[in-house]
Automatic annotation (TrEMBL):
Converts the preformed base xanthine, a product of nucleic acid breakdown, to xanthosine 5'-monophosphate (XMP), so it can be reused for RNA or DNA synthesis. Pathway: Purine metabolism; XMP biosynthesis via salvage pathway; XMP from xanthine: step 1/1. It comes from Pontibacillus salicampi. 5-phospho-alpha-D-ribose 1-diphosphate binds at residues 128-132. It is found in: Cytoplasm. PANTHER family: HYPOXANTHINE/GUANINE PHOSPHORIBOSYLTRANSFERASE, XANTHINE PHOSPHORIBOSYLTRANSFERASE. It comes from the Bacteria. Homodimer. InterPro entries: PRTase-like, PRTase_dom, Pur/Pyrimidine_PRTase, Xanthine_PRibTrfase. The gene is xpt. The keyword Flavoprotein does not apply. The chain crosses the membrane at residues 54-78. This is Xanthine phosphoribosyltransferase.
Length: 194
């Protein structure tokens, strides 16, 4: 599945050995037709998993998550990074430490929208060190919900998030796998299914 790889080759920019800029279609501007294809790809990858809910994190996870929810016909819940006025009671929370930003933040989801009967597909834009995904997994466990798997649009396999999640027995499907970045150059893993 070369969809994401081709898009990165056309529009992505490796800023350095760590960070890929994809502002033109995912992290600032969103390409809706491309995102719909992302939704189709995740729906296909997790076909037959009886998913009842998509869970993501604001803000850049929302676009791919909504498209996946559209295709699967299930609601999309996004974790908040700041508690809002209306988000007060029955919160499920997790601490997420960002190695990239070197700061910790609390992510929250209302228990009202995540229940024991749910089968959850976690979607995110990037899978790097996996801290966001681990926090969302923790929140699902607090809710007693089942996790069907994790879908990442772009996985940077040179960081260890994917390994940590797969070691826990979680199904992880990434639509593009980046093995290395150099300023101005992106290297992909040869065989990527989905
Ligand atoms: P982790 O959850 O996998 O441990 O990731 P990390 O802390 O390293 O990531 C912090 C933020 O940086 C996340 O966005 C993540 O999506 C983003 N990120 C990580 N690697 C890259 C990269 O190579 N390119 C880009 N463009 N973003 C990257 P966030 O702070 O949650 O912001 P938002 O975009 O969702 O609002
Ligand atoms: Na992001
Ligand atoms: Na994200």
């Amino acid at each position: 599945m070369k969809l994401v790889e081709e898009k990165i080759k056309a529009e992505g920019k490796a800023l350095d050995s760590q960070v890929l800029k994809v502002d033109s279609f995912m992290n600032h501007q969103v390409d809706p037709k491309f995102m719909k294809q992302i939704g189709d790809a995740f729906a296909k990858a997790f076909h037959g998993k009886r998913i009842t809910k998509i869970l993501t994190l604001e803000s850049s996870g929302i676009a791919p998550a909504v498209m996946t929810g559209l295709v699967l016909g299930v609601p999309v819940l996004f974790g908040r990074k700041k508690t809002s006025l209306t988000l007060q009671n029955g919160l499920l929370s997790a601490e997420v430490y960002s190695f990239t930003k070197q700061e910790s933040s609390t992510i929250s989801v209302s228990a009202e929208y995540l229940q024991q009967t749910d089968v959850v597909l976690i979607i995110d834009d990037f899978l790097a060190n996996g801290q966001a995904a681990l926090g969302l997994l923790d929140i699902c466990r607090q809710a007693g919900a089942e996790v069907a798997g994790i879908g990442a649009v772009i996985e940077k396999v040179f960081q260890d998030g994917g390994r940590k999640l797969r070691e826990q027995g979680v199904m992880v499907e990434s639509l593009a796998k980046i093995t290395a970045l150099e300023e101005g150059e992106v290297f992909f893993e040869e065989e990527v299914k989905a």
